[in-house]
Amino acid sequence: MNTGGDTQTIAIITARSASTRLPDKVLSDICGKPMLQHIVDSAQRADVDNVVVATVEGDDKIINFCQENKISFFAGSEDDILGRLYHAASWWKAGIIVRLWGDCPLVSTERINATIEMHRTSPLAYNYTVSSDYTGVIAVTPFSVLKDAWANLHNYDSRHWIHTYLSKQNILSVDTQADLDVIRKLWVKLGR
Fold first, then answer.
1. Could you state, in order of their start, the residue ranges of all structural domains in the chain?
2. pTM for this structure?
3. What is residue 26's DSSP assignment?
4. pLDDT block averages, 10 residues each, the chain of length 192
5. Element housing 51 (H / E)
6. Euclidean distance between CA atoms 44 and 40, whole angstroms
7. The dihedral of CA 164, 165, 167, 173: what is its sign?
8. For the purposes of burial, counting CB atoms within 10 Å of the CB of 187, is it exposed (0-12), middle (13-18) or buried (19 or more)?
9. Closest Cα partner for 25 from 102, 85, 77?
């Protein structure tokens, strides 16, 4: 079990075939490949140690796709996205988690790498990019932050909409000397 000391960077793609608005969308063909394969390909070319699909227990379509294509996967509770992310990260001994969404096929290797680099140079524990060019969201966080959220968030909304919860943690205010030091570093880095 991962205790948070590992240094691997793992891309975890959350995907399930039971979408209510468009069932099987993540396996839909886009130019000769399933949508999920496009995302996996971009992630595999990125600066990560492994790519894992986090799906739901009993989702045979996604599980079979991963097995047939030799893609690492984890299957967990459909009602607990945070649990799926945490257990996949723990199983593959992630130090850094790069979270990708299985229904955002335009995500590029370059944006994944840029978000990882932003995380490496940022004093924030949770870094994400939201594109204006339809390529979606990429989120990067250390395992310790994910582990803390997993241990302390208990209601459905916070465990399902984990990105919303974690992104709110990045609001910087100055309450302590350490906060002030972080703001000063950011101020210089942003060229203000």
1. 8-189
2. 0.80
3. G
4. 67 91 87 92 97 97 98 93 92 94 88 90 68 70 84 65 57 55 64 54
5. strand 50-56
6. 6
7. positive
8. exposed
9. 102
Place of tokens 């990708």: 100
Structure tokens at 63: 């599980």
**pLDDT score for 21:** 80
Q: At what angle do helices 35-44 and 109-121 cross, to 10 degrees?
A: 50
- CA atoms of 186 and 161, how far apart (whole Å): 28
Q: Counting every residue, how long is the chain?
A: 192
d(C-alpha 6, C-alpha 2), whole Å: 7
What is the CATH topology of the domain spanning 8-189?
Answer: Spore Coat Polysaccharide Biosynthesis Protein SpsA; Chain A (3.90.550)
What is the model's pLDDT at position 75?
97
Residue with the two structure tokens 């009602």: 79
For tokens 């000397």, what's the residue? 177
Between vectors from CA 159 to CA 156 and to CA 163, what angle results, nearest 5°? 130
Q: What pLDDT, on a 0 to 100 scale, did the predictor assign at position 11?
A: 98
Residue 82 has what pLDDT? 86
The Cα-based distances of 6 to 9, 60, 94 in angstroms read: 9, 30, 6
**Nearest to 92, CA basis, from 74, 119, 111:** 74
The DSSP letter of residue 9 is E
